[in-house]
Design brief:
The protein is of the alpha/beta class. It contains 9 helices and 15 strands. The strands form 2 sheets. Strands 1, 2, 3, 4, 5, 11, 12, 13, 14 and 15 form a 10-stranded mixed β-sheet that branches.
């Protein structure tokens, strides 16, 4: 049976590019969904076998909607991570010139990542937000007589009838987005040089210094943590979960020992996944 991969659509998004990287060469079909909750619900309801969603951008930070949905609405393990280079391009219908553009469409993240270019070259242009960069490019392509432009990726240009007005308009070259593939089923990936384990820690409410004790449980074992982030538990003001990324795969001694120490402190531990991590390198044109 052909496996189905849910991704944040429509066709032509960065999430589709990430999904195709994860499942390159495999017999799968890619199914777009309009929102991140729709993507994850499709997996949870058995409509697809895998889901690919963005989780963090190196410039704009965590995609809170993805994180909260994984925490509060489902319990499906993370199977892989990809750090994908993000290049934003300004596109329009053929015949449109940069000096004539009156409105720019794109996803809020893409606009935020291109603020300097917009301030310099299109300071008085109206900006309208869309659900995705691909939606923006599609919308502009469908209205070729309007003086409009869209910020999107290179894949969108291959799908929709638009041309580049300006390439690589992002503010920072080191612009990466992390994508996750989540599933109840294991995924056969190519070998990775890096593994990671992610846990969700809920602290006891009446334990002073609990977060310090949590970090100490990893520190004295010389276990490296690459990220710790708080998210509201949604049970009351000031109550938080902590998402912790551990720079190693699950083992039989070190991590179970650390988790047991945390549980002895009264912490609740939820293992969100132990998985390979990939990074797609930026291609430099010679």
């Amino acid at each position: 049976m052909e496996r189905k991969i849910a991704f944040l659509g429509p066709y032509g998004t960065f999430t589709e590019e990430a999904a195709r990287f994860f499942f390159e060469g495999q017999d799968v079909s890619f199914v777009p969904f309009a929102t991140i909750p729709d993507v994850l619900d499709a997996l949870d309801q058995g409509k697809t076998q895998f889901a690919v969603v963005p989780i963090e951008n190196s410039i704009e930070g965590t995609v809170n909607l993805t994180m909260d949905w994984l925490i509060h609405h489902m319990d499906v393990p993370i199977r892989g991570e990809l750090a994908y280079p993000i290049s934003q391009h300004l596109m329009a219908a053929p015949g449109t010139e940069l000096k004539n553009v009156k409105k720019v469409f794109s996803h809020p993240q893409a606009v935020a990542q291109s603020r300097l270019f917009l301030r310099k070259h299109l300071p008085d242009v109206e900006v309208e937000y869309m659900k995705s960069t691909a939606d923006a490019v599609k919308w502009v392509a469908e209205h070729p007589s309007e003086p409009w432009a869209a910020i999107g990726n290179r894949l969108s240009k291959e799908i929709y009838p638009v041309v580049f007005l300006h390439e690589s308009i992002q503010d920072h070259d080191n612009n990466y987005t992390r994508f996750l593939v989540v599933s109840s089923s294991a995924v056969q990936f190519k070998e990775s040089e890096k593994e990671k384990t992610t846990i969700l820690v809920t602290l006891p409410s009446d334990f002073p210094g609990a977060l310090y004790q949590v970090l100490a449980a990893f520190a004295w074992r010389k276990i490296n943590l690459s990220r710790i982030e708080s998210r509201p538990t949604k049970t009351g003001l000031g109550n938080y979960h902590f998402i912790i990324d551990i720079e190693q795969k699950m083992d039989e001694i070190l991590l179970p020992g650390a988790f047991a120490e945390l549980e002895a402190l009264g912490c609740q531990i939820r293992k969100m996944g132990s998985y390979p991590c990939f990074m797609k390198q930026i291609k430099v044109n010679s």
